[in-house]
Protein backbone atom coordinates (compact mmCIF):
# COMPACT_ATOMS: atom_id res chain seq x y z
CA UNK A 1 0.00 0.00 0.00
CA UNK A 2 1.19 3.50 -0.77
CA UNK A 3 0.70 6.49 1.53
CA UNK A 4 2.34 9.34 -0.36
CA UNK A 5 -0.73 11.55 0.05
CA UNK A 6 -0.69 10.94 3.79
CA UNK A 7 2.95 11.84 4.25
CA UNK A 8 3.70 14.34 1.49
CA UNK A 9 3.35 17.40 3.75
CA UNK A 10 4.63 16.18 7.11
CA UNK A 11 7.70 14.64 8.64
CA UNK A 12 5.53 12.68 11.08
CA UNK A 13 5.25 8.94 10.58
CA UNK A 14 1.54 8.47 11.17
CA UNK A 15 1.71 4.77 10.35
CA UNK A 16 3.83 3.80 13.33
CA UNK A 17 1.80 1.09 15.15
CA UNK A 18 -0.85 1.12 12.42
CA UNK A 19 -1.95 -2.27 11.14
CA UNK A 20 -3.74 -3.85 8.25
CA UNK A 21 -7.00 -5.21 9.56
CA UNK A 22 -9.44 -6.88 7.22
CA UNK A 23 -11.25 -8.97 9.82
CA UNK A 24 -12.58 -6.61 12.45
CA UNK A 25 -15.74 -4.57 12.21
CA UNK A 26 -15.59 -0.81 12.67
CA UNK A 27 -18.20 1.92 13.03
CA UNK A 28 -18.39 5.46 11.67
CA UNK A 29 -21.22 8.00 11.73
CA UNK A 30 -22.71 8.81 8.33
CA UNK A 31 -25.85 10.26 6.85
CA UNK A 32 -28.40 7.88 5.41
CA UNK A 33 -28.85 6.20 3.06
CA UNK A 34 -25.26 5.28 2.10
CA UNK A 35 -21.73 6.43 2.89
CA UNK A 36 -20.21 9.01 0.56
CA UNK A 37 -16.63 10.10 -0.09
CA UNK A 38 -17.35 13.02 2.21
CA UNK A 39 -17.81 10.63 5.14
CA UNK A 40 -14.18 9.57 4.77
CA UNK A 41 -12.46 12.96 4.50
CA UNK A 42 -9.98 13.70 7.26
CA UNK A 43 -9.90 17.00 9.12
CA UNK A 44 -6.52 17.61 7.54
CA UNK A 45 -8.03 17.26 4.08
CA UNK A 46 -10.86 19.58 5.08
CA UNK A 47 -8.43 22.40 5.62
CA UNK A 48 -6.93 22.10 9.07
CA UNK A 49 -3.56 21.69 7.33
CA UNK A 50 -3.74 25.37 6.45
CA UNK A 51 -4.05 26.50 10.04
CA UNK A 52 -1.09 28.03 11.83
CA UNK A 53 -0.10 25.66 14.59
CA UNK A 54 2.79 23.46 15.63
CA UNK A 55 3.06 20.92 12.84
CA UNK A 56 5.86 19.12 14.67
CA UNK A 57 3.24 17.86 17.15
CA UNK A 58 2.89 14.46 15.50
CA UNK A 59 0.12 13.25 17.78
CA UNK A 60 -1.97 16.21 16.65
CA UNK A 61 -0.92 16.01 13.00
CA UNK A 62 -1.66 12.30 12.77
CA UNK A 63 -4.92 12.74 14.66
CA UNK A 64 -6.05 15.22 12.03
CA UNK A 65 -4.83 13.05 9.16
CA UNK A 66 -6.63 9.99 10.48
CA UNK A 67 -10.34 9.33 10.23
CA UNK A 68 -12.01 8.54 13.53
CA UNK A 69 -13.60 5.13 13.69
CA UNK A 70 -14.64 2.85 16.54
CA UNK A 71 -14.17 -0.84 16.95
CA UNK A 72 -17.51 -2.60 16.70
CA UNK A 73 -18.00 -5.85 18.58
CA UNK A 74 -20.09 -7.23 21.42
CA UNK A 75 -17.92 -5.53 24.03
CA UNK A 76 -17.62 -2.10 22.41
CA UNK A 77 -21.00 -1.53 20.85
CA UNK A 78 -22.88 -0.39 23.96
CA UNK A 79 -20.32 2.37 24.61
CA UNK A 80 -20.03 3.29 20.93
CA UNK A 81 -23.80 3.53 20.46
CA UNK A 82 -24.02 5.62 23.63
CA UNK A 83 -21.43 8.09 22.33
CA UNK A 84 -23.10 8.43 18.94
CA UNK A 85 -26.55 8.62 20.50
CA UNK A 86 -25.48 11.40 22.87
CA UNK A 87 -24.22 13.33 19.84
CA UNK A 88 -27.41 12.61 17.89
CA UNK A 89 -29.64 13.77 20.74
CA UNK A 90 -27.74 17.06 20.97
CA UNK A 91 -27.16 17.56 17.24
CA UNK A 92 -29.93 15.75 15.33
CA UNK A 93 -29.19 17.65 12.11
CA UNK A 94 -25.71 16.12 12.07
CA UNK A 95 -25.11 12.50 11.06
CA UNK A 96 -28.06 10.25 11.72
CA UNK A 97 -26.73 6.74 11.22
CA UNK A 98 -23.90 4.36 12.04
CA UNK A 99 -22.10 2.55 9.25
CA UNK A 100 -20.68 -0.81 10.29
CA UNK A 101 -17.92 -1.76 7.89
CA UNK A 102 -14.82 -3.80 7.23
CA UNK A 103 -11.83 -2.76 5.14
CA UNK A 104 -11.04 -4.55 1.92
CA UNK A 105 -7.67 -5.11 0.30
CA UNK A 106 -5.60 -1.97 0.31
CA UNK A 107 -8.12 0.48 1.79
CA UNK A 108 -5.63 1.61 4.41
CA UNK A 109 -4.20 0.97 7.86
CA UNK A 110 -5.77 1.25 11.28
CA UNK A 111 -4.23 2.41 14.57
CA UNK A 112 -5.66 1.98 18.07
CA UNK A 113 -5.95 5.49 19.55
CA UNK A 114 -8.14 5.32 22.67
CA UNK A 115 -8.64 8.31 24.93
CA UNK A 116 -10.15 8.85 28.36
CA UNK A 117 -13.66 9.24 26.96
CA UNK A 118 -13.46 6.83 24.05
CA UNK A 119 -12.03 3.42 24.88
CA UNK A 120 -12.59 1.95 21.42
CA UNK A 121 -11.31 4.80 19.24
CA UNK A 122 -9.12 4.05 16.23
CA UNK A 123 -7.61 6.22 13.50
CA UNK A 124 -8.03 5.01 9.95
CA UNK A 125 -5.31 6.10 7.49
CA UNK A 126 -6.45 5.88 3.89
CA UNK A 127 -4.04 4.54 1.33
CA UNK A 128 -3.46 6.48 -1.90
CA UNK A 129 -5.83 4.05 -3.61
CA UNK A 130 -8.69 4.45 -1.14
CA UNK A 131 -12.19 4.65 -2.51
CA UNK A 132 -15.57 3.57 -1.20
CA UNK A 133 -15.36 0.27 -3.08
CA UNK A 134 -12.67 -0.71 -0.60
CA UNK A 135 -15.15 -0.41 2.26
CA UNK A 136 -17.37 -3.39 2.84
CA UNK A 137 -20.69 -2.02 4.12
CA UNK A 138 -22.01 -4.53 6.60
CA UNK A 139 -24.92 -2.64 8.10
CA UNK A 140 -26.32 0.87 8.45
CA UNK A 141 -28.08 1.53 11.74
CA UNK A 142 -30.39 4.51 12.17
CA UNK A 143 -29.72 6.31 15.46
CA UNK A 144 -33.40 7.29 15.61
CA UNK A 145 -34.13 3.63 16.40
CA UNK A 146 -32.57 4.16 19.83
CA UNK A 147 -34.55 7.26 20.85
CA UNK B 1 -29.91 45.17 20.39
CA UNK B 2 -26.44 45.30 21.90
CA UNK B 3 -23.80 43.29 20.09
CA UNK B 4 -22.52 40.42 22.19
CA UNK B 5 -19.01 39.06 21.91
CA UNK B 6 -19.58 35.36 21.31
CA UNK B 7 -15.99 34.32 21.83
CA UNK B 8 -15.72 32.26 25.01
CA UNK B 9 -12.72 33.55 26.91
CA UNK B 10 -12.91 31.82 30.29
CA UNK B 11 -14.20 28.75 32.09
CA UNK B 12 -14.52 26.91 28.76
CA UNK B 13 -15.70 23.33 29.20
CA UNK B 14 -16.49 20.75 26.55
CA UNK B 15 -19.24 18.53 27.92
CA UNK B 16 -19.40 16.19 24.93
CA UNK B 17 -16.88 15.76 22.12
CA UNK B 18 -17.36 13.61 19.03
CA UNK B 19 -14.96 14.79 16.30
CA UNK B 20 -16.24 18.30 17.07
CA UNK B 21 -17.11 20.00 20.36
CA UNK B 22 -20.75 18.90 20.45
CA UNK B 23 -21.84 20.56 23.70
CA UNK B 24 -19.82 23.19 25.55
CA UNK B 25 -20.09 26.23 27.77
CA UNK B 26 -18.11 29.16 29.08
CA UNK B 27 -18.01 32.90 29.68
CA UNK B 28 -17.13 35.74 27.31
CA UNK B 29 -14.92 38.68 28.22
CA UNK B 30 -17.85 40.81 29.36
CA UNK B 31 -19.24 38.14 31.67
CA UNK B 32 -22.00 36.69 29.52
CA UNK B 33 -22.65 33.01 30.18
CA UNK B 34 -22.78 31.00 26.97
CA UNK B 35 -23.87 27.43 26.24
CA UNK B 36 -23.22 26.17 22.73
CA UNK B 37 -23.85 23.06 20.70
CA UNK B 38 -22.91 21.72 17.30
CA UNK B 39 -25.54 21.87 14.55
CA UNK B 40 -23.82 20.56 11.45
CA UNK B 41 -20.86 20.62 9.13
CA UNK B 42 -21.57 22.74 6.08
CA UNK B 43 -20.79 21.97 2.44
CA UNK B 44 -17.54 23.97 2.58
CA UNK B 45 -16.54 22.27 5.87
CA UNK B 46 -17.34 25.31 7.96
CA UNK B 47 -19.38 24.38 11.01
CA UNK B 48 -22.50 25.84 12.59
CA UNK B 49 -23.49 26.00 16.25
CA UNK B 50 -26.24 27.23 18.54
CA UNK B 51 -25.01 29.76 21.07
CA UNK B 52 -27.41 30.57 23.91
CA UNK B 53 -26.88 33.51 26.24
CA UNK B 54 -28.17 32.45 29.63
CA UNK B 55 -28.20 33.68 33.21
CA UNK B 56 -25.46 32.64 35.61
CA UNK B 57 -28.06 30.73 37.62
CA UNK B 58 -29.32 28.76 34.62
CA UNK B 59 -25.75 28.22 33.43
CA UNK B 60 -24.87 26.63 36.76
CA UNK B 61 -28.05 24.56 36.84
CA UNK B 62 -27.26 23.30 33.34
CA UNK B 63 -23.70 22.34 34.28
CA UNK B 64 -25.03 20.49 37.30
CA UNK B 65 -27.52 18.66 35.07
CA UNK B 66 -30.45 20.14 36.94
CA UNK B 67 -32.18 21.44 33.82
CA UNK B 68 -32.33 19.92 30.32
CA UNK B 69 -30.47 21.67 27.50
CA UNK B 70 -33.65 22.42 25.53
CA UNK B 71 -35.20 23.96 28.63
CA UNK B 72 -32.09 26.13 28.95
CA UNK B 73 -32.44 27.25 25.33
CA UNK B 74 -36.07 28.18 26.03
CA UNK B 75 -34.95 30.40 28.88
CA UNK B 76 -32.05 32.00 26.99
CA UNK B 77 -32.13 35.78 26.60
CA UNK B 78 -30.68 35.44 23.11
CA UNK B 79 -29.91 32.58 20.73
CA UNK B 80 -27.50 32.78 17.82
CA UNK B 81 -26.62 30.47 14.97
CA UNK B 82 -22.86 30.85 14.74
CA UNK B 83 -20.76 29.81 11.75
CA UNK B 84 -17.10 28.98 12.30
CA UNK B 85 -14.32 28.38 9.82
CA UNK B 86 -11.80 25.55 9.92
CA UNK B 87 -9.72 27.53 12.38
CA UNK B 88 -12.64 27.57 14.85
CA UNK B 89 -12.95 31.33 14.29
CA UNK B 90 -16.46 32.79 14.29
CA UNK B 91 -17.18 34.22 10.85
CA UNK B 92 -20.93 34.87 11.18
CA UNK B 93 -23.56 35.04 13.91
CA UNK B 94 -27.31 35.35 13.33
CA UNK B 95 -29.62 36.20 16.19
CA UNK B 96 -32.96 34.39 16.08
CA UNK B 97 -35.87 33.18 18.16
CA UNK B 98 -36.15 29.60 19.29
CA UNK B 99 -39.60 29.33 17.68
CA UNK B 100 -38.05 30.12 14.30
CA UNK B 101 -35.64 27.18 14.48
CA UNK B 102 -36.86 23.99 12.76
CA UNK B 103 -37.79 21.47 15.43
CA UNK B 104 -35.64 18.76 13.93
CA UNK B 105 -32.55 20.92 14.49
CA UNK B 106 -33.17 21.18 18.21
CA UNK B 107 -31.73 18.95 20.93
CA UNK B 108 -33.85 16.11 22.21
CA UNK B 109 -35.79 17.17 25.35
CA UNK B 110 -34.07 14.41 27.33
CA UNK B 111 -30.58 15.92 26.93
CA UNK B 112 -28.91 17.01 30.16
CA UNK B 113 -25.31 18.09 30.52
CA UNK B 114 -23.14 14.97 30.29
CA UNK B 115 -20.48 14.70 32.99
CA UNK B 116 -22.12 17.34 35.20
CA UNK B 117 -20.39 19.47 37.83
CA UNK B 118 -20.53 17.95 41.27
CA UNK B 119 -19.81 21.03 43.35
CA UNK B 120 -22.18 23.92 43.87
CA UNK B 121 -21.01 27.17 42.28
CA UNK B 122 -20.40 30.20 44.46
Describe this protein's structure.
The complex is a heterodimer of chains A (147) and B (122). Chain A is an alpha+beta fold. In chain A, 20% of the residues lie in helices and 24% in strands. Chain A is built from 4 helices and 6 strands, in the order αβααβαββββ. Chain A has helices at residues 4-7, 43-46, 58-65, 77-90, and strands spanning 26-30, 67-71, 97-103, 108-112, 121-126, 135-142. In chain A, strand 4 and strand 5 form a beta hairpin. The radius of gyration of chain A is 15 Å and the shape is globular. The termini of chain A are far apart. With 122 residues, chain B is mainly beta. Chain B has 2 helices and 6 strands, in the order ββββααββ. Chain B has helices spanning 56-63, 69-75, and strands at 8-18, 20-28, 33-41, 47-54, 78-84, 90-96. Chain B has a 6-stranded antiparallel β-sheet. In chain B, a hairpin with a 5-residue loop joins strand 3 and strand 4. The longest helix of chain B has 8 residues, at 56-63. Chain B is globular, with a radius of gyration of 14 Å. Classes of the chains: A alpha+beta (147), B mainly beta (122). Chains A and B meet through helix 4 of A and strand 1 and strand 3 of B.
Strand content of chain B: 35-45%
- Please indicate the percent range of residues of chain A in DSSP E strands (runs of 2 or more): 15-25%
Major beta sheet summary of chain A: 6 strands, antiparallel
Unreliable stretches of chain B (pLDDT < 50, length at least 5) are: none
Class based on secondary structure composition and strand pairing of chain B:
mainly beta
Number-wise, the strands of chain B total: 6
Distance from first to last alpha carbon of chain B: 30 Å
SSE ordering of chain B: EEEEHHEE
Report the end-to-end length of chain A measured between terminal Cα atoms: 41 Å
Strand runs of chain A, count = 6
**How many DSSP helices of chain B?**
2
Strands of the widest sheet of chain B, in order across it, are 1-2-3-4-5-6
Radius of gyration of chain B: 14 Å
* Helix residue percentage of chain A: 10-25%
Amino acid sequence: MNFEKLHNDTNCNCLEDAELNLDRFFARKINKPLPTDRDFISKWEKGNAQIEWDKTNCQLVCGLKGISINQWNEISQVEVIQKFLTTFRISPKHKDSILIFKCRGNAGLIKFTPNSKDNFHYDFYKSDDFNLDLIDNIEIISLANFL
Amino acid sequence: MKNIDLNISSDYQIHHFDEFPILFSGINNTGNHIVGSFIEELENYNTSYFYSIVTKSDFNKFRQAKIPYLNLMNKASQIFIVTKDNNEEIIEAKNLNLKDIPKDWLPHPSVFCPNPEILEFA
